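Hello again,

I reread your note about wanting to compare the complex against the isolated chains. To keep things tidy I'm splitting this into two emails, and this first one only covers the full assembly. Below are the input lines as submitted, including protein chains and any nucleic acid or small-molecule components. They are followed by the predicted structure of everything together. The single-chain runs will come separately.
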Amino acid sequence: MKTIRHTSTLYYYDGPQVFEARDAIGGHYLAVMIEPEAGRERCLVAGVEPERLRQFRTGALDLRTLLLERGEPEWYLALPNGDLNAPLALQPQATPLASFAHLPDPGFLLHDRPALAETLREARARNNLVMEVAVEPPEAAPKLRILTLRDQRVLLDADLARLYGVETRSLNQAVKRNADRFPPEFAFPLTRKEILGISQTVTSLAQLKFYKRVQAFTEHGSLQAANILNTPSAVRMSLYILRAFMKMRGELAENVTILKRLAEIDRQLLEHDTDLRALWMELQPLLVPNCNQ
Amino acid sequence: MSYREPLPEGCPPAEAEEVNAERVVYRLVRGHPPGLDDFRSQRAERPQGVFRGVSECLARGLSVHSQRADSEKTRKLPRFKNSFVCRLRLANGAGRIQPTFQPSHHTWWPLASFDILGHSEVVT
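Full-complex prediction:
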């Protein structure tokens, strides 16, 4: 009969509840304690791939998913008999132990951590909220301030109007008169929450909170605005804006590479943290008084 | 000081903090309302058990969480699916407590004189 040995406890609550084990030839197993039967301790055991086990240990994989989505379909039952030092004999079981009642509920992650995609999105939102693009500006042109809103790079109406040499009110009126040429992916009004968010996070836009209505223009919206204004200054400045957006895209691509590298470092740190925690759990009994064993 | 269960010498360890002000912890219980059986240590449950990776002192303590979310998470495990989350308002004289194992998990050694049921309430 196949046997396994406990190697490290992954989750403890009134005793080890989830633990790793190895068989005689080094195969990896995960054991989860289930309801005792007739007073006997029982655990559900499944063979798992080392890479999937690593994902579970770092909080990237849910316990139920780890158990259900495996290369090998075997399920086992083991009766620890209170002594995890001893080899555990594995009894093959019907899949998965006759019913799903013995499986953990969805959502059991060893470590609670935000998903990588979410971390990246948050990091991008924080890093790129405002980007002052250093493109050689035409004479007397103000610095270009590009913001990230609703996952789009935009210019605010006041900034665009200043670049085009018109009043903000005039720009917005022109846009209003040509509303059919400004779909939402070209221009959109900011919500109150967005206005307050920008005024609180961008020092140079702190005064924005006093404005009731603020319009944001995407790259295409900025060009469309130059078309409808049709002034020499607007046409000249629209080229400047185009170059700025192009440069910004290049810089963002580099930024994403850095963020990915940071995420990779973060993942490695978490792995080391998990290993240290496992080591700590093994060391703990040696540090706490142990008289009666 | 007398603890609810006989403890080995030097247990609780010196690092364990004495509860001398109110603090809230959470424990999974089977009963609703909970009974004293819900507050038995591993050692009391399995007098002959050998607990790998767990000292006798820890085996005679009770697992609690300082964060309710962690108790809720533990309920996802098959062993605890039929449990309830119980809030314990520990107060002066409750015993000693120490962070152990994963974050938010603590081991609590209650004093015999502490009225556990009078300070517990099922919340989920």
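For quick reference: The two ends of chain B are 33 Å apart (CA to CA).

B.
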